[in-house]
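Page 42, continued from yesterday. The earlier attempt failed because a stray header line got pasted into the input along with the sequence. Redoing it now with the clean sequence only.
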Amino acid sequence: MQDEILTLPEIAQLLKVADKTVYTMAQKGEIPAFKVRGQWRFRRADIEEWMASQVARTTKKTEGPRRPKGVRK
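This time it went through. Structure tokens are written below.
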């Protein structure tokens, strides 16, 4: 299976954020990326995995600890 490589503008469009946001995230290592002759590139599989982990992380934060049924604060 061949892995699709995406450009910075394509990732920005996919995430619906500005190009500069993706550039900064890539520089800081906040999103999986690599450079080819000074230009950022992204593997679609890595980005999809990263997005799934972000959703899971966000879901955990919003759920919080659960109390047993019938127990009040």
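Notes: The chain has three helices and three strands.
Reminder to self: strip header lines before submitting.
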